[in-house]
Amino acid sequence: MATFLYKLGRLAFRRRRYVALVWVALLALAGFGAASASTATSSSFSIPGTEAQRAFDLLEQRFPGASADGATARVVFKAPGDEKMTDPANKAEVNKVVGELKSGSDQIASVTDPYTAGAVSKDGSTAYVSVSYKVTSMELTDGTRESLEDVGHAAQKSGLTVEIGGDALMVIPETGATEIIGVAVAAVVLVITFGSLVAAGLPLLTALIGVGVGVSTITALANVLDLGSTTSILAMMIGLAVGIDYALFIVSRYRAELAEGREREEAAGRAVGTAGSAVVFAGLTVVIALAGLAVVNIPMLTKMGFAAAGTVVIAVLIALTLVPAMMGFAGKRVMGRKARKAAEVPDGAPSGTSAGTEGKPNMGTRWARFVLRRPVWVLLIGVIGLGTVAIPAASLEMGLPDDGSQPTSTTQRRAYDLLSDGFGPGFNGPLMVVVDTAKSSDGKAAAKQVSDEISGIKGVVAVTPAQFNKAGDTAMITVIPKDRPSSVDTENVVHSIRDAGEGIKSDTGAEVLVTGSTAMNIDFSQKMNDALLPYLALVVGLAFLLLMLVFRSVLVPLKAALGFLLSVVAALGAVVAVYQWGWLGSLFGVEQTGPIMSMMPIFMVGVVFGLAMDYEVFLVTRMREAYVHGEKPGQAIVTGFRHGARVVTAAAVIMMAVFAGFIGSSEQMVKMIGFSLAIAVFFDAFVVRMAIVPAVLALLGKRAWWLPNWLDRILPNVDVEGEKLREQLGETSAEGRGPGGDAEDERELARV
Description:
Layout: H1 2-14, H2 16-36, H3 51-62, E1 72-78, H4 88-102, E2 108-111, H5 114-117, E3 126-133, H6 142-156, E4 161-165, H7 176-194, H8 197-221, H9 231-259, H10 264-291, H11 299-330, H12 337-343, H13 363-373, H14 375-390, E5 398-399, H15 411-423, E6 431-436, H16 443-455, E7 460-463, E8 467-468, E9 474-481, H17 488-508, E10 511-515, H18 517-551, H19 555-580, E11 596-597, H20 600-628, H21 633-660, H22 668-700, H23 709-714, H24 723-728, H25 741-751
Parallel strand pairs: 5-11
Antiparallel strand pairs: 1-3, 1-4, 2-3, 6-9, 6-10, 7-9, 8-9
């Protein structure tokens, strides 16, 4: 691996104009495809294997044109003062709104009259108009949404309070501004890390090119592959993260090779051969994590995972080819003015001369020595600290956000509150019960039995009469629960109806299915919860095998996997404490506590696992490289930190800044994702990788690199540390080290 990548790096450096031209051409081609492709629509959201999805499918079949999964809206009216919505003037205004809505868009399937549908509260103060659409919320045109909002604004002029709820106004949160903030922070961190604008610009430029190629390709193929309009969000986030990280790793190694006096082409080849090997295997772990989303068996998540994995592959290819090519264009400026004067590396300098700067102990060296002196204390503090933060994770409750979790400044939230006040909290989450009477001898009697039994279930406040289709073999019954959609009590109502349906089926032959947005959210959360452990087992298990190839060890991959699990559980605990319990909620803009978004834990696992393995591979491969080249275990830890700590710290700070930018979003879901990813990266990079990992390695000593002989013979030797490369180049294991650095570290270790 190292030998092949060494040759690839030198080739890309020599043929840099051709390499750059190829990537620019690919970017232009992908951009042209994205520009010429038709606007992507949202791919249909389905949850195979759930009762709610089977009910939706049955409705599509038995009630053609009903658009069971279509968008909905509720235009809620509240009369001013002591007036009633039944007053003639107010009633006339509502009827006017109903007429305008019916003619407002050809995407509208139906509009209900509140005075004939019983949608007026008992005290007469509140009424609502239900609007059903033929398409999903993400397929609504801007004109349809604007028409709905305009009708509401016009009605407000009459003195009525008018708010609009439902998913018809739901839009994908814009992430452009936060991404720009993240890139700006990344630029500042890179300049501080490298001390050179050119060196800082390389990772940013190549990462943006990789993201451009990946996201443009996704946009171009969105309609062909039914990827939907949301697929590119994850791909952009992950692509930007790993693109900067991978380029950062290789540029850092290139600068280290230059500092040792190597020619620029030779330094580029060695950087790609060593750090590039770590990039390849780190990229494979990210691909495993993202492609593993397929185990959840939700098509939307599967497509998002594979699209993001493709963007990661592009980031790896960019790092191995375009980055060394750009280093060729950058020349000596990649070192920075001060570093160039200190190193004095001429283009034709013979390989092996050193600038003498490697021996100066940096912050990473000092921290590694501190951990080596007190490994037990560092390990205990790290594990106990993360364990304490993880305690709230035992109370994790998962669900999907509804209008009740929106900020109070939004019309959706105000409509939600008006309905809760006028009709009760359960009106915001009606359940749709589908009764399949095709195999029943008396369909109407079966439907009546269903209605009667549901009426007696605790937590149900209203049950509408059954509505049959034209064939008379399927009925729909609307059930209003007592509590809000995301409450545990409403979930219990859904389970109680389903339990009652089993007895009804045995008595009458009619099948009872519960669906609707509330039931779909409950089933979705349950499916995500059930998939979390298998997903963890898959990605951690495959990554464990992959890391065994990289490190030629059993204990190092095991330590990496256990450390990742610890950081993830701690991050979940922090999320529960802030967003479910409300601790420090005002600091992070939490306006409404509630269940944790069901997609968040598995999403966080996939993203953070990939980044964590990036840091693990880059940091520990440098230790493994030093150990294989003859250094003692303790000295290898110091060497790994001397070369890698600053780079890993910079990469983690960049990712934390990118993710933390999302906390400022007005969307509660986006806030939660941003917070969870930022805190998880912090725990994993600074507590696990920078503290627990060196402490464990210090305690294990040589045992950390133990591998059974029979397993050593079976596993292929991928040579990530470049031992075969050094042999091919005719070097001994002691060559290329900075003078003074190893002797000083040996004396320090002897004293310890």
